[in-house]
Amino acid sequence: AEAPRLVGLSTAPLAVAPIRFAVGVLGIAGAILRGLAVNAATAEFIFGTAVFAFAALADPRRHFFRLESEAEPVPADATFEPLGRVALLATYPSTVGLTVLTGIALAINAALAAVLAGGAAGLGVACAVAGAQIAMRERASGIRLYAERGGSRLFAREAVPPPSAKQHQY
Description:
Elements: E1 5-8, H1 11-33, H2 38-58, E2 72-73, E3 79-80, H3 83-90, H4 94-108, H5 110-141, E4 143-148, E5 154-158
Parallel strand pairs: 1-3, 2-5
Antiparallel strand pairs: 1-4, 4-5
Helix pairs in contact: 1-2, 1-3, 1-4, 1-5, 2-5, 4-5
């Protein structure tokens, strides 16, 4: 069997969140440059952000909180995807799709572009929340969780504790 290629379960959402925020900022800036009033663009953006964040966080298909007991130990021959690749892979299809739709909307309807830009930012919010929740759960349990890229298996290994601050003795 081929060695699994692993992605940190908290890493992927935290890596893609800034990209989604950037898409949102560029989209609302584009809508304003296309002539949409700042107040209207802001309202449309906030609406899109709220709807998409809520929809993503309420999605029952989220698999972020499977029990750690379902996780297999990380095999010795496992490889770990680099952060840049993790972020890039996490943009497809939702971030890429929203970026394309926002670009098309900019040519047709600046208000729709602002809503879609907010949608990208809303997915960024959902990723930041989910990534932080997973990271806190990992920290509390003392393990790191990994997902197999292109697969459905979950892996875990003991977290490496951060180096402690040196104690000064007086």
